[in-house]
Each structure stands twice: as C-alpha cells, then as structure tokens.
Amino acid sequence: MKRIENFKSIIDKYKVIFFDAFGVIKTYQGLVPGIEKTFSYLEKEKKEYYIVTNDASRSPAQLAQTYHKMGLSAITPDRIVSSGMLTKEYLDLKVKDGIVAYLGTSDSAHYIETSGLHTMPVSQVNSSNIDKVNALIFLDDEGFDWFEDLNKTVNILRKRTIPVIVANTDHAYPLSVTDVSIAIGGIANMIERIAGKEFIRFGKPDSQMFMFAYDLIREYRTITKQEIVMVGDTLHTDILGGNKFGLDTVLVLSGNTLPNDAEARITATGIAPTYICETAVVELGELGF
Amino acid sequence: MKRIENFKSIIDKYKVIFFDAFGVIKTYQGLVPGIEKTFSYLEKEKKEYYIVTNDASRSPAQLAQTYHKMGLSAITPDRIVSSGMLTKEYLDLKVKDGIVAYLGTSDSAHYIETSGLHTMPVSQVNSSNIDKVNALIFLDDEGFDWFEDLNKTVNILRKRTIPVIVANTDHAYPLSVTDVSIAIGGIANMIERIAGKEFIRFGKPDSQMFMFAYDLIREYRTITKQEIVMVGDTLHTDILGGNKFGLDTVLVLSGNTLPNDAEARITATGIAPTYICETAVVELGELGF
Amino acid sequence: MKRIENFKSIIDKYKVIFFDAFGVIKTYQGLVPGIEKTFSYLEKEKKEYYIVTNDASRSPAQLAQTYHKMGLSAITPDRIVSSGMLTKEYLDLKVKDGIVAYLGTSDSAHYIETSGLHTMPVSQVNSSNIDKVNALIFLDDEGFDWFEDLNKTVNILRKRTIPVIVANTDHAYPLSVTDVSIAIGGIANMIERIAGKEFIRFGKPDSQMFMFAYDLIREYRTITKQEIVMVGDTLHTDILGGNKFGLDTVLVLSGNTLPNDAEARITATGIAPTYICETAVVELGELGF
Amino acid sequence: MKRIENFKSIIDKYKVIFFDAFGVIKTYQGLVPGIEKTFSYLEKEKKEYYIVTNDASRSPAQLAQTYHKMGLSAITPDRIVSSGMLTKEYLDLKVKDGIVAYLGTSDSAHYIETSGLHTMPVSQVNSSNIDKVNALIFLDDEGFDWFEDLNKTVNILRKRTIPVIVANTDHAYPLSVTDVSIAIGGIANMIERIAGKEFIRFGKPDSQMFMFAYDLIREYRTITKQEIVMVGDTLHTDILGGNKFGLDTVLVLSGNTLPNDAEARITATGIAPTYICETAVVELGELGF
C-alpha cells in the first residue's frame, strides 16, 4: 500500500510546480478549500508554478479571471498553459490563410484568431465559403446546435481534406457529485470515427502540453526536468503525461481519483505517481505562520 | 478480378432471398429503378424473400407502407426482419416490468412497447421515476434534443445498472450524393465509451439478425442455409454477416460500394462475397415477358 | 447489493442448463470440488444440460474424455457445444475446396477436417501451394512456432483474400492462481490489426454459439428461451452473451469473477446476471440423499 | 490533384531537414539509389540534417555504421535521433534503481543501460529477482522466444506495477517487395490489451521524438519550427507527427506510400503533407556539378 504523503514536504524538493486545474485547484463547487494557502506558500518560497490545463474554452486571461472571481488572485494569465494555446500555435505555424471553422463558443474562438485567419462557427459554413475552410477545430461542447452542427461537421470533412484539431482531449467533465457532461473530446472521437479521418489532439497526456510549459520557463531561466513536479487528480492525463515527459508526479485525491480507489486504479492501469497526497493544500501549521 | 454476374442467374439457384433495404431496393432518391421487376419475378417463381434491415426507426408495418407509397407493393410487413424486432424480443424475454427509456421518435418507441413495460423518452426521466428505468434503448437519431438528452443518457447510466440496447448498429447513413447523416449507432458508441458500460447491439453483421429471419422461415417450412442467399450493398454488414452465418452472398454496386472501389475494398478488408452484381434488378428480357 | 442465491433453487426453475466449462465445472486445478453432485442431480431430475465452451483446441469427443479422466462421466460428447463446432459448420457451408491453413495443434485441426478440404499447418504453406489456401483458422495457441508462423500468417493474408476464422475469442486463460497464458484470440487480434483484414470470430459472447446449442435441442424437442439458463463465471462472455440471446443467466464466483469484485464489476460494466451464486455445486443436503 | 514537386527546390527553403530512415534513405534492398547526392548537397549548402527514426534496435553509433557499410558516410551518430534515445532519457529521469527487463536483442539493451540500472532479458526474470524489476521495455522483435517470453511478460505485468516502455511504435516493417515482419510495436499492443495496463510509447507520430531533435539543435543554435522540414514516406507517422509538431512536411513516394495511392490515402486519412516528391534524391543536374 502506497503511503499518503505531506504535500508541503514534496513541493519543497522542486523548483517548479505544474498544477492541473480541475480536481486540484477547483471543483464544480468552487475552489478546493484552503488551496490559496498553497499559492501563498509558493510565493513566499519564490517557487514557480504553472497551471497546465486541457481547457480550450477560454483564453488564459479569461481563465485567470475565473480564479480571481473565486478569490484566488495568484493565478495570472502568464501562469496558464492550455490546450487552446497549442491550438493557436498550430494555426500560426501551419494554416496560412482562409477560414478556420470551429465548434464551440465565440469566446473560445476569439482566442485562437490570428492575423490572416478568419474564424467561423460551423453553422455559418456554406457552399459559397466551404472552399476557403482550411482547418476545423473542436473547442468546446457549448455554443452550437449538436444535431445540426455535428452532422454538418461530418459533411464538411467529406468535402475538404484539412487538418482537424481537437483542443480538449477530455471525454467528460464533472458537473456535480453525481453528474457529468460530455466534453468536446468525446464528441470529436465520434466524428473522427464516422469521417474516417485522423484528427490532431492537443492536451494531456500528450507531451506537447508539457513541452510548451517547459519551453516557456526555459525562455528566461535554466531548468531541468528533475526540478519540476506535476500535480494532478487524473491518472490517465496528468500522471501518465507527466511521467512520460520525465517529470516526477503527485496524485491528489480531491478530484477524479477517490481515496478508496486510488490504489486499485494504479494497480489496474499500471500508471503510478511518484507520490500520493490527500490534496494540494499546504496546511497553515506547516507554513509556520 | 472478380466477374460481375447476372442477378437473375444467381437467384435462380436459391429458394430464399434475403435483401438489405438501403442501397439495394431503395436509395435516398427512392426505389432503385426497375427493382419492382425483381419482386415480380420472385412472385412468379414462387421464391421467398425477406428484407433484413438495420432499421429500428419504425415498425415493419410502417416500413412496408413506405415501400407501398413508392409503388412497391410486394413488400408486406411479414417480409420484414428489422433490428427493432430483435429489440422487441429482447425486452419481452429479459425486461419484465418498469420503464424502458429511449432515444428516438415516438414512432420507433411505439413499436417496441410490450405488455407490462412502459416506454418513455429520455427527456422525461427524472428523479421521481429513474428508479423504475429498467432498460435504455437507442432507436433513432431523430426525435430528441441531442445536447440535453445525450448528456442525460450518460447520467442515467451512471445511476442505473441496466441493459442498454443499440437497435441500429450503423454509424452513418446517406442523405444525398454528397451528404451523410450521423446514425444512432455512431452516437451509441460515443455514449458507451463515456459511460464505460457494455451495450448490446442488434443489427447486421451480428448473426442474431440472420437467425431471426431463418427461424421465421423454419416455423412453416424446412430450409437449409445453402438454400438462402443474402443480397447487400455493404461489405461490413450484409456480406460479412451473411458469410459468417453460413449463407452465400451477393454484393450489389447500387449503394455503399461503388463499382470502381469494389475490388479494392474486398482485397483491403478480406470480406469477399460469393458473387458481385451491378444491381439486384432482374431485367425484363431475362423474364421472358 | 445483489443477493447470493442457492444454485439448486435456481436450476429448479429451468428445463435446460447451459454451463460454461472453465471456472464453472473445472479450473486449472481440476474439477470444481463437488461439481459431480450437480450433474447427479440434473440426471435424477431429468434436466438437460450442455457445455457451451470457447474451446476449439480439441473435438467434443476429446473434450469429453478430459472430464472422464477427472472423474466426471456425465459429460458426453453430445453434451458439448464448442466454438470449434461452429468453425467446422462454417467450413462445411462456405469453403468448398482447397487448403485450410491453421495455427494450432494437429488435434485441433483434425476435428475441423471435412470431406473435400485439406487442413495444413501454416508452417507448411509455401509458394507452390499458397494459391490453394482458401481459408485460414486460428485454433489454438500451441502447436506452432510463434515467431515463424505468425509472421508467415501475416504474409499469407497479404497475398490471399480469404476468410479468416478465429475459433476461440478468449484473449488469455488462467494457468495457476497467479499466472495466465495468452490465448489464440488475443494473438488473432494482433494479426487482424496488422493485416488490416476483418476476421470472423466464433465464441461467446457471440450469439451464434447459443443459437447452435438452441438448434441442437430443437431438433428433438420443443423449447423456449425462457426455459434455458446460462451458467458462467465471466461477465463479458457467458453473461453478456446469454443475456443478449434472451436467456436468464447465473454468475458463479468460482472462476474469473471473484466474490469481492462481483458487485463492482457488474456496476462498472453494466452487465448484470439474473442471479449470482457462489458456485454451480448442488449441495448434498439439498439433494435429500 | 496535388502536384509532385522537386525535392531540391523544397529543401532550399529550409535550414534544417529531418529525414525518416526507412523508405526515404534506405529500403530493404539497401540505399535509395542516388540518396548520397542529397547529403553531398546538404553538406555543400551547409544545411543541417537529422535522421528521426522509430528504430530502437541499435544505438545511434550502430545505426550510423549500417549506413557507412552501405556507402553513406554522411550520417554520423550525432545526426541520429531514435526512439531508443527517448527510452534512455526516460530511464535516466524516472527509474532510479533495480532491473530493467526487456524484450529485444542484447545490442538493443546495451544502449539503454545507464548507471545504477541493470538490464535483463525477460527470459532471465524469475521469482528471486522479479521484485527488483522496476521497468519493462519493448525494444525489438528479435532476440527472444516469442512463446515463452511474451507469456512471461504478461505474467510479470500482473505481479509488478511498473512503467512499460514501447521503444518502437511501428506495427510492421517491410522485408521485401511482398513480405512484412511483425514489429515490436504490434506485439506490445497485444500485450497491453491482455495485461490491461497503459504503456508509454516513444516514436513518431508522438511529438516527443520531434521535440528531442528540436532541443538537440537549440543547444547550440537558434532555430524556429518554420525553418525545419520533415521528410518521410509514411502518412501516419512522419507526416502526421511533423504536422502536429508544427513543421512543414514532405511526403516521398519511395517507401510505404505508393505513387498511385498517395492522393487517395491523403484524402481518406485527412493527413496532408505540405509537399509531395518522388524521392528525397537531389539530382546531379540540379546540383550544377
């Protein structure tokens, strides 16, 4: 049986902490109680931290604002690495002109707009503009009519040989203690199978998410992978992805993986974190305040 | 290179003909031109025939009526074997009471109603009746709100350990020369993966469809599998299923499998029909009329 | 929490009992202790029983003999329905001449030989006879050189568009308390993916196994599906397949599904048996001896 | 129809060229005829190049030597980025001590050995040392007994919750015009499914391969992704991976993708290269020699 460890004693060993967002910092009920103490401690100890999230529904600025509204001001836009940012980089590098059709809200699309590219909801694609559609992006499960626009998406992909980006690889996300919501990553899998095309996915566990964050840090300082630890609540995304990229990993039990299940799921999947902690909260007593 | 053969000379060798519906008898444009001659010939020769279809959207009576409206009166309800009939048989045998929740039109649900069971669209399931839901059925891609009701379906399946039936295994169906529509079988695959449950599927290529038709015939006469031939336009459903059940098979090129592609797709998949014909039409000249 | 029920009181309600073999009647250690009492009771009560097994490694006669050697004489060859019998029926109906190449022991091949067909181990296929190879069968994980013959199988399938039959759908089978062995069904999945072809599988949970047994009974008596119960230790094969075919089902906890796990696995997979019993043993006291 | 372009005119636009090995530089028959001219040109133009290969069977030094023996001296060990190098980096970062069990030749294992870790063929793992096995690596399809050691691998993974690395993601590789060989990546998929564990894969199309090469370059010079082009013969690995990483890509028709098929496969998969060329050979006339 793996030992449950003290979160503070773990982060003391690293220079940079990567946090997953959902299930670690916040849940459907708001902030994880006490999590602000963790960020106070990190600031005090001058440790760097990044939020590494499979959330392409909003820009880093908008995501940061949701934390501020909940009372956590430590998370600024420059601390956030999202799968939406990888999507934006891909479009910058690989799609030079034309229309980027998308499934999602206009908020999610606004962020990925780049000079020279025009974003357009799938609902507005028609026979007069389809020839200019040079990429199609799955951004969010809201903001469109599932019946109309998913059927339309399949037919656009039958007519155009274009890159398709899935900006969020999650299949479902929690809404409440009992309920989940189908995520755009689950929908994209269905469309990929029906269209018979190969989509491009950005998001944990894929290494490109971790590399993007790693590169951000290296722009201004020297760092090695041994000096970074990834903190997450989900074995298949946070822990598998962190491990594969060569980072040490912490599984917290405040989200997707329940305390009673952790050991069994680690054994069943073979995905083992370096450490297991109850939560990512650094307790006040530990802070010596 | 496989020889294209004469349809009449093939059916002359068999006592019973199983026909797929879509792509063989009708397309999105109506009846396959001339197909009524095939049924005149079968009647004249006193050969039996059945329509074996992955269509659970309507009852055999309603399906027969659509043929009559198009001018083909030979197809009566007793000639139709559908995946909806297998669903109905399953409910009769295995679900004794309570509510059968469904995704589909009320037409599709009406047919599967059996004494003692109450059918209810997923949209009407709520906290006061969910404990009585003893089965959930995917019937048709129309008749419900995809966003609301697919999310609700996932959450019903998280709360109830009940059989889930997919009454149509197709992933997509053709709407026009260029466009397809996502079928309920494709949607069911997405929900199955997200819910993590094992669904029950009725429909070709599964043997249970062929067995059901075979049993219907054996109720009133003696027949062997060698005396039956399956005619279809799709390698993965009609031909694979027919072959596996032990029937001879005819691939027709009037639907899903295009004349230019047939040979390459047979080689690529390894699914080989006994014969290939342009269409299932028996030409007038051949009839000796 | 599902109640553990008394096996005798269950079988008292049915006229015909289908048993899985491994994990129900025998384990890697020999007969399930006391199982002979069950068959004594069935004989005394004049109930019919069949062994429905995904075992194509030997003929029914050879399989029956292994039970006799263990001291269970009640299981005669005519009581056994195996996936090997379906394979034999397929070859009879669909492969008229030429060579049937196989992976397995000569024992397994001997049984499927039919008049007009010549069986040949994959190792003996060469450039002079490959054009006569009209089917390829995965029979058993023993009897061939994995490296040589699996590579050869892939290359035969690149040259010949022929039906490929997987006569045992299991991926692994238990060897001891701690160890399993890779089964031919697992190997066949790998070859299918590499060859890119669509294989034909016989074995539970596929309905064709149940239909074969059902047809055997109907040859000499009238029976309905409600009068048959399927007894098995594996949710994904015995219980799923029995349920789908319309039979009531009993999960026994003497094999693949452990007592501590049963409830969690039923909930996780959504595959629910009609009943759960510790074992398929009818206790002496119950017999009134 | 996509235009076939001149390879020289393409590479003239980039500063760094990444080459796939098999199907681009060499085939089962030896070097692609004339390929040495390409490397002469690159040297003359002072362009950098790397071989990015899913080959973990040998060290970069040994791989370079095979090119030298064929007469291509331009490819030195420091030009080679292999999935074996990623495996070695993973072990350095994540597996601190104990035994690394492997499937492959001793050559392939020798390379991944690092201080503190002991490599051991799966065949030598036994009850006295299994508790020290802290990782298991799939390196090569040769060097072990498939029957004995694949079964043993499954059982090691049932007893140890350890990371499993697949150092070559290919499913098959060509041996001759007509024949292929099952690759270790295909075998690993079978074992992963049977063991029910989640393996870690290094190799194209995964981004980590491209990132490793990109980081190597950035250690001594400044470069952007726009200045690099990836040249490969396989849509699903070289082109998909290069595209996803943000590189321009060249599909050459000298290997896996045949001239007659290229257009159809691009349309079917949706994986589009930036350019298509007959081969990666720079013609003499073009060199102005």
Quick rundown:
4 copies of one chain form a homotetramer. Chain A is 36% helix and 21% strand.
How is this structure best described in words?
The structure is a homotetramer of 289-residue chains. By secondary structure, chain A is of the alpha/beta class. Chain A has helices spanning 7-11, 35-44, 60-69, 83-94, 106-112, 146-159, 184-195, 207-218, 235-245, 262-269, 284-287, and strands spanning 4-5, 16-19, 26-27, 30-31, 48-53, 80-82, 98-103, 117-121, 133-138, 164-166, 172-174, 180-182, 200-201, 228-232, 248-252, 275-277. In chain A, the strands form 4 sheets. The first copy, chain A, has a 7-stranded parallel sheet with strand order 1-16-15-14-2-5-6, sandwiched between helices. In chain A, strands 8-7-9-10-13 form a 5-stranded parallel sheet.
Number of strands of chain A: 16
Q: Supply Rg of chain A.
A: 20 Å
- Overall shape of chain A: it is globular
Q: Name the helicity range of chain A.
A: 25-40%
What about the largest sheet of chain A?
7 strands, parallel
Biggest chain-to-chain interface with counts: A-D, 35 and 35 residues
Name the average pLDDT of chain A: 94
